[in-house]
Amino acid sequence: MVNLYGQRDGNLGIVKMNKEHRYNTLTLGLINDITRGIDTMNNDHTLHAIFLGTEKGQHWSHGSDFKSILHMKKEDNYTQI
What is the CATH number of domain 4-80? Predict the structure, then answer.
């Protein structure tokens, strides 16, 4: 399953999260995917805006995954968020 989709609609870049079965909980992996997706869109200077949404539109996000935060803190990678 793909965690993130990217597309364009004219001058609008669209980044859609696709983990609604997990309520788009922000894990380190999904945060990295979103960052890469937005960075990719940002490199296209013909885009005027970037929209971050969801594939099905039912659940935007239930927030951070505390297991990921605790794991990063344990490894002293807390500044990655």
Answer: 3.90.226.10
